[in-house]
Amino acid sequence: MVLLDDRTSASHPTHERVISVSDKAAGLEAIIAIHSTARGPAFGGCRVKPYPSRADALRDALRLSEAMSRKSAMAGLPFGGGKCVVIADPATQKTDAMLRALAEAIHQLGGSYLTADDSGTSVRDMEVMREITPHARGFALHTGEACPAAAYGTFLALRAAVEHRWGLSGLGGVRVAVQGLGNLGMRLCAYLSEAGAELVVADPRRELVERAALDFGAEAVSVDRILSEPVDVLSPNAFEDVICDASLPLIRAGIVVGGANNQLQTAQHGLALHQRRILYVPDYIANAGGVIDVAMEGAGYSTQGVLKACEAIAETTTDLLEEARRRSVAPSQLADELAAQRMGRTRAMDGVMAEAVAA
Question: pTM for this one?
Fold first, then answer.
């Protein structure tokens, strides 16, 4: 039996609801954090991870759900922010029974929370969950893979940042260090390589590094070295809190933009990057492609339409960086202020999204 405990929400006044979910028979222990539904149902992926402790899982759920609110607000989408984290090893403990139990819990929330694939889950997992609830999103392409919207949006944000910083109209010869070669990181490498960028890559999985070297001519370096590589752009696509007190002095890139969530350990690290004259594009702007993809699911859905809609990410990036330069403030600080303003309003999709859906 799936058990929901909503009592924890009282301890987290920044969030609307924080729900503990358990089903001992299915091996399910999870947390669903709903940060805001002011703009619409809370959306955020389902992460399955062997967290060291329940406190670590809760911290992840709270931070990621708040970031999702910012992401949807800055993308002009009719969603709030939420997140589901499951305390389990996806390689050895994730089962269809667990997924169905989680889907039952999500269904009990009545559509106030929508989920999709994330780290440790796949579009195939979402198909299993849709046997129980329509509130599991994320559809597979004919290849069986997810739409590459998150990677494409990150690519567009990176290209816009390069143009803003150095006035370059393309990425030919631009040296980019890609940290993390998961689905997003590998697809990002493909976009960057096609655009003429020179790649330096790192990932603990040797087979993925070898694949990037073979497919894109990437230079492989150790995970310990990737942050300090002398490159033009550093692209974090693996871990949270990658920009922290220990790592910040090591960074030699002029720009930081990537697809990983919560790259800054604290807001102060965004200010520190700005003080070091390192241009930082907030992750919740760069990696908004995934939530754009979910927003467009339904009648008339097409990969081409989603990728076309993701072009708004480049415009948002450019507008943010230009306004931050005009005000002489850190882009991360300005983005947080704008997101806070927009989270207070409920509105339908902006014109770019409406045109893309209609197409």
Answer: 0.89
